[in-house]
Amino acid sequence: MDESRIRNILGSIQSGRLSIDAAFRKLRHLPYEDLSFAKVDHHRHIRQGIPEVIYAEGKREEDVVAIARSMYKKSKKFLITKASKKIYDGLKIKNAVFFPSSGTISIGEDKKKKGNILIVSAGTSDIPVAEEAAVTASFLGSKVESIYDVGVAGIHRLMDIRKSIDSAKVVVVVAGMEGALPSVVGSLTDKPIIAVPTSIGYGTSLGGLTALFAMLNSCVPGIAVMNIDNGFGAGCLAHKINIL
Amino acid sequence: MDESRIRNILGSIQSGRLSIDAAFRKLRHLPYEDLSFAKVDHHRHIRQGIPEVIYAEGKREEDVVAIARSMYKKSKKFLITKASKKIYDGLKIKNAVFFPSSGTISIGEDKKKKGNILIVSAGTSDIPVAEEAAVTASFLGSKVESIYDVGVAGIHRLMDIRKSIDSAKVVVVVAGMEGALPSVVGSLTDKPIIAVPTSIGYGTSLGGLTALFAMLNSCVPGIAVMNIDNGFGAGCLAHKINIL
Amino acid sequence: MDESRIRNILGSIQSGRLSIDAAFRKLRHLPYEDLSFAKVDHHRHIRQGIPEVIYAEGKREEDVVAIARSMYKKSKKFLITKASKKIYDGLKIKNAVFFPSSGTISIGEDKKKKGNILIVSAGTSDIPVAEEAAVTASFLGSKVESIYDVGVAGIHRLMDIRKSIDSAKVVVVVAGMEGALPSVVGSLTDKPIIAVPTSIGYGTSLGGLTALFAMLNSCVPGIAVMNIDNGFGAGCLAHKINIL
Amino acid sequence: MDESRIRNILGSIQSGRLSIDAAFRKLRHLPYEDLSFAKVDHHRHIRQGIPEVIYAEGKREEDVVAIARSMYKKSKKFLITKASKKIYDGLKIKNAVFFPSSGTISIGEDKKKKGNILIVSAGTSDIPVAEEAAVTASFLGSKVESIYDVGVAGIHRLMDIRKSIDSAKVVVVVAGMEGALPSVVGSLTDKPIIAVPTSIGYGTSLGGLTALFAMLNSCVPGIAVMNIDNGFGAGCLAHKINIL
Amino acid sequence: MDESRIRNILGSIQSGRLSIDAAFRKLRHLPYEDLSFAKVDHHRHIRQGIPEVIYAEGKREEDVVAIARSMYKKSKKFLITKASKKIYDGLKIKNAVFFPSSGTISIGEDKKKKGNILIVSAGTSDIPVAEEAAVTASFLGSKVESIYDVGVAGIHRLMDIRKSIDSAKVVVVVAGMEGALPSVVGSLTDKPIIAVPTSIGYGTSLGGLTALFAMLNSCVPGIAVMNIDNGFGAGCLAHKINIL
Amino acid sequence: MDESRIRNILGSIQSGRLSIDAAFRKLRHLPYEDLSFAKVDHHRHIRQGIPEVIYAEGKREEDVVAIARSMYKKSKKFLITKASKKIYDGLKIKNAVFFPSSGTISIGEDKKKKGNILIVSAGTSDIPVAEEAAVTASFLGSKVESIYDVGVAGIHRLMDIRKSIDSAKVVVVVAGMEGALPSVVGSLTDKPIIAVPTSIGYGTSLGGLTALFAMLNSCVPGIAVMNIDNGFGAGCLAHKINIL
Amino acid sequence: MDESRIRNILGSIQSGRLSIDAAFRKLRHLPYEDLSFAKVDHHRHIRQGIPEVIYAEGKREEDVVAIARSMYKKSKKFLITKASKKIYDGLKIKNAVFFPSSGTISIGEDKKKKGNILIVSAGTSDIPVAEEAAVTASFLGSKVESIYDVGVAGIHRLMDIRKSIDSAKVVVVVAGMEGALPSVVGSLTDKPIIAVPTSIGYGTSLGGLTALFAMLNSCVPGIAVMNIDNGFGAGCLAHKINIL
Amino acid sequence: MDESRIRNILGSIQSGRLSIDAAFRKLRHLPYEDLSFAKVDHHRHIRQGIPEVIYAEGKREEDVVAIARSMYKKSKKFLITKASKKIYDGLKIKNAVFFPSSGTISIGEDKKKKGNILIVSAGTSDIPVAEEAAVTASFLGSKVESIYDVGVAGIHRLMDIRKSIDSAKVVVVVAGMEGALPSVVGSLTDKPIIAVPTSIGYGTSLGGLTALFAMLNSCVPGIAVMNIDNGFGAGCLAHKINIL
Questions:
Q1: pTM (2 decimals)?
Q2: Among partner residues F153, F213, F218, which is closest to B219 by beta-carbon distance?
Q3: For residue H15, what pLDDT is reported?
């Protein structure tokens, strides 16, 4: 139901063509979504905090390019995750940036960054997931610092980054294999920690389930855990917390 | 927001105290649920097809008795699942029936039964789940026929019940262990079949997961599968289909 | 044993060549299947409700084409699931329709559609499974309406389709990831709901097991659940219920 | 190494008894923890954000009482989780509060509450976990609002609490069975959401794993997930975010 | 349909009251089970090789006693598995034997034993399962030799029993934990080997799944594997093979 | 230690160069395997019942060809499983037979077949596993009858093969998906049954684990179960039983 | 075969009653175990390194007491694991020591301890497993130092024990929940590390599987992992390494 | 903080410019890692026992070559695991050795080997993992003996290698499928045993999990278990133990 139909009903009351009882019945039976959800839709960005993002995996390359271009036309910004270099080349949009480790493409992010998110990852193989989190949070408007390759096996390196932890508002920790890094980082700070397990490992890493379960069982209380390899989700959550 | 507030707005338009524009803005910002969901609530029974049922497991006996009595007062009917004999004794409601295998208590079911549901179970240990399905469907108003102990190991018994299958509108098949019975029943009829795995078995029965997975993989196409031991759910679904 | 042999026995009684005792012994030892199962075979379509369908996966393309052609010759109709475009091109049967999302090929479906099945799917990646269900049910003779891309994350869209739900006899809900959509749809209607989990997702989606388990655990009672990605089974069941 | 030993080394330099080279070598070989970690210990509360809490499960009742009393003596405050009524009775500490659903005992929480945490739970059986989260966050100094029994099966109830969502800084959503509630809540707000799966359910709920996996797979991006039944962890994380 | 009805039809042909055509139609539509399955039932023992056995677990003690007595009356023999001493005491049947490790009760087994079954078990905790296999096979009429406590950790003991292996027709090997014994026994003989995993073990023994999977993966080809703790099944299979 | 060394010791006793005591000590410390295991090796075929077979999977094609040729030279017979057509072409051994469904190559099997093994498989996709079992048992010297495509969904077909079951000594049943066929076959006979689950199926078939678990949980007692897709093992076991 | 029989054969050669050929054949067919395994048995302690230990779990208390007394009589020493206080009280053996956390009873251990094993455990709930490892290794003759309650959440505590690590020959690390402690300890030393996961934790700790898998996936190379809660095994392995 | 800054502080004390109190405060607040961890870094080889090793899997070939060359320049030695022949060809470093089964490249290992490690593997398919363990331990400076293809199915072969076991200090046992070999080897020796499960097998081998779990459940106490296919880890641990 469009706005005009409601105005018509109200006009009919005003003009006396419609009794209050009859108008009430008409309004009562209006599909509620015309009144409220339409409006909500208008503020979709605000309601969910994450503007439309394109998940390229499983989509045809030409489709991703078309969606991205249309989105760019409307709002001059978009974020594509799990994208190939071929998609990037097909976009032909100046200033769009391609991040090859994670396969993320970003354009139009706000230049004025808010807060401070620290993203720490354990091994070189965890970098794609960490990068996806970093690009996502940055795209959404957060300031991000990334420190890669801080494994538990080289625990002294972790000590080096204590200063960065202290100046961050929220810390994202990305780790595969035994997934111990969030516990170790968490033992050194009272900042909210977002743990992202990766599928890095073999045998009993079970495609990342072991790291995931280890993080959910951390003896440091209150660590937020994401799905395996979900750098995008970690970036979203970190941003939501960072802008509080 | 109650009805009177909407009527006030409409009255103000009628009386000229409020412009259409202003009234529209007011109505537009009404929480939609006042207009639509309240109404929906009024028809809750119709909307979900299953009147309020009391799940006794994990609740204190005196609480179950209190809820049941209050419900009986309002509507003269209720169904309690996973109930103990002690709850039944505590109810002291004449004509309430206790089904000891499944621990179900029922009162107030419609005397005029519709359609015809056949409930078949494989072994004696599967009877509690089959009985819960039967009592539930009967309570909701369906006619139910039950045939117990029709295992695959005694496959010729299954042939005996072919007549019952033919006169049913929908067939519920309850089985544990290898969960093969729904496939066998399904090979003999084109009626909708609802398969309920039970947790009966040991070792690799995995608490019913094996029967569940076997039923989901049936080579007979289109078998509806329920959660393990979910006789109540099977009774609900069978009834919904039976009254079509 | 063919019919003639039984007739011979009966003829020998009539003519007095065989005593009743001897005839009874002969009949008693006849393999029962000669008497009953042969007859049953004749009504195979009626007995199982689903005419022969070709499952192309794992079969050689030329074999599928040959089977389909032979079936077409006999009955002017067939349904091929999990088929490639190459198979379709090889068929060279006019009026056969190829559905590229699901890889289904259909010909000869009845023009007079019965009832009304609504098929709702959550994300764009779930469309292949939803389409397979739709094509199957339509091939079997059911009227089908499909609404795609109604995710929980955009729950207001779901409200838009309430009218479609109300006019359907049975609703098929296809969803991957957390598999929440059937619960949400089920909270709005008392129609039978068939839930189909898809393998869409990553990490803890466990190839669709999470969506499957979530659907089996729905707090809406009586949802019928199918195997992961089993659009064909959902179409069969929906049709069986729809024609009741 | 205690402070006095370092002072002795420094004194020896001052007095000329020790060359800078020798002193440097001595200091260099000091166990670093004497210098830094001791200090850190002093600020343990600040470092991890969660003052010492007593986890009663698996401990003998008299031990829990002794630890709690000693802690109360030192700091006038403590939080005991998974405690029995018997422990509470044994404490004999005036003003200590016992929360029977979750078995939590709390005393000494700050009267001046900060921020606003909303805790929503799906079914009555999920209340113990929700209560543990609420008591924990409140003990740590956060203002908490709790709304229980907002299931997906009664989705319209969820709409009623939209105002509470809007006035919260962070939302904790507690749900068992299919674990769909966080997705539904998440579709209505851009606040950080903390999802807590509970072990409520049977069969394929797999002791809460299904709800956990469903939450990790939510189509709403950026939901923070906790271990099964981990109300305490959710309270900690919600507080950490709430005080940002 | 009873025999008399068929005889009536045949009599009507003989007397000329019924044409062959009409008789054929009548017979054709007889439920086939009257002709064939009834007969089969009469030979149930022969058809499945295992006379009726009572599985006591999950049944009430008085029910087991009643069933056993009735069975004893008819055939002077029965086997009860998973029985308690209380059931045995309640039976009050002279000569019935109670085997306390496995909780098996047996009476009426044939005195003339056939063939030779060797039952080997790995640890003392595996004896209940081995005993159930031994009592079952003996009850069915097989000669059984049992050697207990032949673990892989004491592999030289295995060598001692080589003579017993050589004189057996089939070997049952019962083992928990890592389930390696069937492979080791299998490396020494070409007799059929039946492997029975037990639930003995902890941690990654996963209730016997590890032993089961190890046995299914034996590098000795052609080992027959039973469900976890299924001594009864092993006894049945060993007997079936032993009497060939 | 070779035979000559033992003969030398014995010769030294005879000639008086060695006392009995000294000879005993020498013999006592001989590695036992020289005395016994060497001999055993000589009878390897008899000891394990299965002459050397070549498992081609994971081996380089030229290696398989070389091993097979060398084996053929020595004994004029071999069996290769999981072989490609390319291996077969490379062999260039006249009379070697290639079975394309299962990828088995066989030569030199005994012409005089013993006993009678029936191999039944459920669906067309199960044929490769059934064929591997058939070729293996035949190669080892057993007479084999194979009946393919006897699914539970077409349960009447099973009745047709009852005569074949009756004339077999042991029955191998191959089935994927829900794995119900062995239970159904087992309900009709008292012959030993060997059940082979296949990896055919999708979703909750879990790569054959569901069929495997269903077979292990069969309500027909005493079914021998093999690893998933293990046609070779089934052929070995069937042969071992068949030649008893 | 006893020694005398071999001596007889040798004597017959010497006396000329037996040819070398005949004697060789006789000796060749001797069961090898008479020659070698008997001897091996005599050195059982040396061969396996772990003298007979009594595992009390699942055994009747009076049986454990009887076995222990008999063992004490023969060798004045024994170790009982998983024992109750009641068993200890029943023993009535002076100087036997009962360790209540782990339920271990020990007597007769060597006073002269060798080497140095460090046992570190993460939380108070892990102490039973750590104690079992300590008592076992000490019983076998190793010097053991134990440091309990060194969690990752209090990682600075770990630094305090660095000196103990440096003076140990092998380190046992016991931890439940996320199982991260072995990685952290391993990052600080090049000593062999034995990791023991415990079943401490809830939800996704999966009864210790998560800690086990995390330890097997440690990014510190070469950590030896034991079964869940296997303190006894860890004590055995630590001792074997410690005495090298 | 570099050394000079500490020297400055000490110099200021010496010269009287800084009081002891002030100097103490300055030193106390120094980031501890400057004092201790830097030093530790210098001894990284000693601390973890395993010099930097390159894990090639998942890295680009040119990157591996670059890292290896740079490492070779500095220390004249490196070890690359999971490398391709192409990487080896790209290195162009004389004397570097390529091990094709495991894909390991090694150069610069010490010529003076210590101790004695025995590596035993079960089947030909387990050789790659065994070779990786052998090359790793040898690279680290251990003497290694390898015996391949000692399966349980040919258990007499195992006896042949008893002498090698006796002369080893530690034994590595590599096995897939049912993983029984470590138990069998362990029953013959009291040396520390390191068990490495491999992913060899199919069906219920579950990618090596079954062999892993079997090894963790060995009835031989104190077997050290590694992750699936982790030959590198086994080589590291064997070396650490071997050099004690």
A1: 0.84
A2: F153
A3: 83
Q: For residues H238 and H139, is the Cβ–Cβ distance under 8 A?
A: no
CA distance H74 to A81: 40
Q: By a Cβ cutoff of 8 Å, what residues of chain A touch chain C?
A: 31-33, 37, 40-41, 48, 58-59, 197, 199, 207-209, 212, 227-230
Summarize chain F as % helix, strand, coil (round to 5).
50, 15, 35
Determine the Cα–Cα distance for residues H222 and H227; give it in Å rounded to an integer: 16
State the CB neighbour count (10 A cutoff) for residue B124.
16
> CA angle, B138 as apex, B134 and B142 as ends, to 5°?
115
DSSP string, E116-168: EEEEEESSGGGHHHHHHHHHHHHHHTEEEEEE----GGGHHHHHHTHHHHHH-
Start-to-end CA span in chain D (Å) = 37
Q: How far apart are CA E168 and CA G182, in angstroms?
A: 50
Q: How close does chain C come to B222, measured CA to CA in Å?
A: 4
Note the pLDDT of residue D41. Answer: 33
Q: How far apart are CA F14 and CA F23, in angstroms?
A: 11
Contact H192, E159 (CB under 8 A): no
- Report ipTM (2 d.p.): 0.81
CA distance to partner chain D, nearest, from residue A234 (Å): 6
Residue B68 to residues B15, B55, B80, B103, G49: CA-CA distances in angstroms?
50, 11, 8, 15, 66
Q: Looking at beta carbons, which residues of chain C come within 8 Å of E36?
A: 30-33
Q: Which of C28-32, D222-226, G49-53, G99-103 has the lowest mean pLDDT?
A: C28-32
Beta-carbon separation of G153 and A220 below 8 A: yes
Helices F20-28 and F3-14 sit at what angle, rounded to 10 degrees?
Answer: 170
Distance from CA of C49 to the nearest CA of E (A): 22
Give CA–CA dist G167/G178, Å, rounded: 27
**Please, which pLDDT band fits residue C175 given cuts at 50, 70 and 90?**
very high
> Each residue of C233-244: pLDDT tens digit?
999 999 999 999
Sheet holding A104-107, edge to edge: A54-55, A78-81, A104-107, A97-99
Given a contact cutoff of 8 angstroms between Cβ atoms, the answer to whether D172 and D118 are in contact is: yes
Alpha-helical runs (H) found in F32-169: 32-35, 37-42, 44-48, 61-75, 85-91, 127-140, 155-160, 162-167
Residue C244 to residue C142: CA distance in whole angstroms: 11
Q: In a 3-state reduction of DSSP, which class is residue G80?
A: strand
Rounded Cα distance, C32 and C28, in Å: 8
**Would you call E201 helix, strand, or coil by DSSP?**
coil
Q: Which residues contact F108 (CB under 8 A, 6 or more apart)?
A: F72, F75, F76, F77, F78
Residues 6+ apart with CB under 8 A from A54: A64, A67, A68, A71, A78, A79, A80, A81, A83
Give the per-residue SS3 of chain C.
Answer: CCHHHHHHHHHHHHCCCCCHHHHHHHHHCCCHHHHCHHHHHHCHHHHHCCCCCEECCCCCHHHHHHHHHHHHHHHCCEEEECCCHHHHHHHCCCCCEEECCCCEEEECCCCCCEEEEEEEECCHHHHHHHHHHHHHHHHHCEEEEEECCCCHHHHHHHHHCHHHHHHCCEEEEEECCCCCHHHHHHCCCCCCEEEEECCCCCHHHHHHHHHHHHHHCCCCCCCEECCCCCHHHHHHHHHHHHCC
Residues on chain C touching E33 (C-beta within 8 angstroms): 32
| Out of B213-217, B222-226, H160-164, H231-235, least confident range | H160-164
CA-to-CA distance for F55 and G53, rounded, in angstroms? 43
Q: What are phi and psi of E206, to 5 degrees?
A: 50, 45
| Torsion from C-alpha of H4, H8, H9, H14, nearest 10 degrees | 130
User: How many Å apart are CA E123 and CA E3, to the nearest integer?
Assistant: 56
